[in-house]
Amino acid sequence: MPGPLALVIWYIGIGLEIAFIVCSIARKSFFRYLFLNAYFLLELGSSAGRYFFLSRFGQSSAEYCYAYFYTDALLTLALYVALISLYARVFGELRLNNFVRYAAVLLLLATALFSYAAVVQSEQRLATAFAYELSQNLYFVGLVLTYILWGAVLKLRETRTRLVQFILALGLYFSGYAASFALVNLASKYSVVSFIAPALGCLLPLMWTVTILRHSEESRLEPARLLAVAR
User: pTM of the prediction?
Assistant: First the structure.
């Protein structure tokens, strides 16, 4: 079983995910941000599934390993879909929704093909290696797409406060995860490094929950304030 600190971080993350869903329902925004809520619902289901395999087979078991990597790939895919839904909201007024959807599907297929090509000759189990590779590549694609979307927000002078804050939080989340992966590779001998990624997992539901509580759908940012945030 994971240590006490790892379990505390895990439980905090679950609590924050539930908080976002509850706040979305309370603020009558559940269906408006359906894919964001769906991502956290999937997170909760994945946590329950992982805990089942963890408690029954142990942390070092092959069963838990499969459950972890498969759910991780599924969650990364769900977060990618949530990101595309934010793209659709930003570009909706320009009537580019269909273009965004087609481009997103093509990019996803290209990422999946690249991930498969990277592991097809691997000596490891292909399905597990593919799930891991796809998850890592989608995180990188998500990071790039989030910064592109942030550039579009600035270019189009998007002022919807919730939307801007959701995108900004997602950019910080992806950036933090990218930095944590680099830190793990550079300083894996330090045990504290292993807690960074789980702790960052609490960051996204926390920031999104604060956003949906503090701002209504009608809230708007002043363009000058938006440019100040960019600096």
Answer: 0.88
